[in-house]
User: What shape does this take?
Amino acid sequence: MNWENQLSSILSAADGSVAKMKERLTTPGKYPKGREVDLYLMREVAGVSGLEPPCLPALTHPFSSLLPPPSSSAVQWADLAAVQSQLQIQSQAIESLTRSLCEMDRERHTQQRHVEALQDEVRRLREREAEQRLGAASPGAERRLEQWRREVGRELTSLRGHVTKATSLGNLEEGFSSKLRREELDHLRREVDTLKTQFRRQEENMFLQQSEARETRRQYERSCKTLEELTESYRNHSFELAKTVSQYSHTVQEIRHIRATVSELKDEVRSLILRQRQHTPTVTPCMAELAAISLHREFKGQREKPESDSDDFSPTPSLAEISSDDLSWLDDKDREIETHQTRQHSSSLQLSNFD
Assistant: This one.
């Protein structure tokens, strides 16, 4: 029948649209033509069901401005609009099926009324037959009545078969269509619920990513400030270190100059001591003893020098050693010379008195 072909075509178109929708949902980022496929499906289903394509309202969402671009999201708002349009198309197709079922039901009722009318006519014919049976006396009339009765019985049985078949088919079609409609609506509701949950999860993930991006930006700014402070402190420390190194080199040069000066002074002192030895031969043993004492103290001071300083490996003595060890024997020498002179003077006085 025509309604069976119409129902099968609508179901095949709905299955194809659901399969394409699932394929688009499972393969994100592949929508070259937007909603052209959905519009084609709308026209196909509308042409099969004999309906006009519906005017879809624009789908608005409070978070549409916060959604990522279509190339980066897995499920787009256009897909939701397509699902809504397909739901509307399928609901309209179901409504057309229900209208066709109602028409079939009305046709069944008309057929039942027609059967009832035929039954009434059969009753009238039976009554007429009874009247004719009462009024007829010839056997030819009885044969004609019997033949006519058989024809009427066959027609009634055929009409009853058609009526029972129509009623059974109507019940089956009604049950099948209602069951199919319920299953399709449940399936579409579940898919819409899954899409809504996916959209909510994507919105939550997007908000979390935005908060993480803001926190990462704050941390980056803090790290940049810390790095700038560290760089500035490093520059200051490097400047101070260079200044300290220059001061240290200047101090080392001054110490070397002082050591050279002290060594020169020591050489001059030694030369003066040698000159005094040459000019005063009477005090030669005492001077030799004083020179030995000074050399002993000099060697002692060189052995007691610290080994930690790298600049102390030079053979020139330090200023502290000169002041503490090498210059102390000069005072002792002066005292010994004075005592020796006083002794000589006293001995000379004693000799003069003795004379």
Summary: Residues 139-279 form the longest helix (141 residues).
